[in-house]
Structures are given as C-alpha cells and as structure tokens.
Amino acid sequence: MKTVVSVYSITMGIAIIVFWSVLWAGGSIPDLLTKPWEIAMHLTAEFTTAGLLLVSGFGLWFGTRWALRVNVFASGMLVYSLIQTPGYYLQRNAMIFVLMLAVSFLITVLLSPVFKPSLEEAPGDCRN
C-alpha cells in the first residue's frame, strides 16, 4: 500500500505544480492583480503542499524512515486544500473543477488510513 500512497503523493504534487503553473503562464489568476497578498499566501501554501507531497512520496518510494511522518503532514495540507479550493470554483460555476477536486478528496480520504503511523511503530519507522 505504501507504493500506492507514494505514487498518489507524487502524482498530486506534480498535478498541483502543473495546474498553478499553467494558470500563471496563461495569465488566468485574476486575484494576482486584485488581491496580491492573498493569492501570494495561497500559492505559497499550494506549492509547499506540492513540495512536501513530492518529497514524502519519493521518500516513501525509497523507504526512508522520515517519509511517513512527512507524508502525514503533507496529506493533511492536501485535505485542507481539497476542502477549501472548490469554493472558489463553485462561485464561478466551474463544476468540472469542483468534480475533479471532489474526486481527489475522496481518493485522499480513502487512502488516509495508511498515512497514519500505527501505535506499534517506532518513531520514524517506515516498515508497513
């Protein structure tokens, strides 16, 4: 199951970076001009989430001891983002994005039990 979590984390990290990069390159972030501080902080959170998903995903793939704990944190950041972000697209009636985010949320929740270290594990253990 760690392979599934690893691949999912890496995929979501890449997807977040590609999504925002395409929007940025296409000039499709209207809040960039109207709310520069708000969008800057939002983008910081999004890219931090993506970075931690990538780092922990590769860490899980290669069996590092710290990766599971980092992935728990990164996954929590992702869950928050997948709850908060659809509101923006609901306001604009962009239902395809809402559906995409809802599916991502469901997949994340379905995988979430494997993100939690069991009580039997030693701190930093990445064996299960």
Number of domains: 1
Strand content: under 5%
The class by helix and strand makeup works out as: mainly alpha
- Share in helix: over 70%
Query: Quick one: biggest sheet?
Result: none
What does this structure look like?
With 128 residues, this protein is mainly alpha-helical. It has one domain (2-27, 35-115). The chain is built from six helices and no strands. It has helices at residues 2-25, 31-34, 36-61, 67-84, 86-91, 95-111. Helix 1 runs antiparallel to helix 3 (36-61) and helix 3 (36-61) packs antiparallel against helix 4. The protein starts with a helix and ends in a 17-residue tail after the last helix.
Topology:
Elements: H1 2-25, H2 31-34, H3 36-61, H4 67-84, H5 86-91, H6 95-111
In brief:
With 128 residues, this protein is an all-alpha fold. It contains 6 helices and no strands.
